[in-house]
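Bench notes, afternoon.
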Amino acid sequence: MGGTATRPLRTGWENDTPSGDTLSLAGIRAMADRAADWARAAGGRSRRGHPTTLADSLSPCLFLNVATSVDTVDTAAAREITGFFASERPFVLVTPHPTADLRPAGLALVGHPPFLVRPAGGGTPPSLPGDVTVAEVRDPAGLAAWGRVLAAGYPVPLSPAPPALLGGRTRFWLACVDGKPAATALSHTAHGVINVEAVATLPRHRRRGLGAAVTWAATLAEPALPAVLIASDDSVGIYRRMGYLAVSRWTLWAHS
């Protein structure tokens, strides 16, 4: 119509879009916050911005040095991201979107894992075997044990979690068998969702449901909120049985 101003179309990924607009937006922002909080607590550095947040925790574990982007990533953007990290630093780039071929920027494609959401409410965790306990880690000694199980169970290089994170938005969950640490998960509450990460079980304790048990604890860290996570194709069935729904596939690149 003549004389009527046309507003530009929005994608829902703009910086001023409320996190509650979609669970995908809330999820990627929560993941970015978790990485930035960890980097700060570890004495590293982070750069929050739009569309990309960068977090370098100075860790030998690539999953603790994280770039998240709410936009599509081209080679030029990937080179800028790579330049933020030290040349020897492993890191992972996470985006909800397909990307260009980023190999010219020195990255390798990890894959397109499913992004899952579990609405608040729903079923309850199954009963634990008598020799299994699951509890939140609340002290540095427990956090050190949590880090050792994560490193051995994933496996990833040992990178102790900073004790400064205890009592904050990131919470750590540990499953024990006969009192001995056996499985890990963490939850990070931000942007109206619970982001679940770092699910790992020691090899000798696998196929007993410990990973699911500790994931339940992280998932229900705030029962009134939905939970989100990125899964592998091998593990997605476990999460579906917990009430998680596969929403889309994201893109992961890595520098190692």
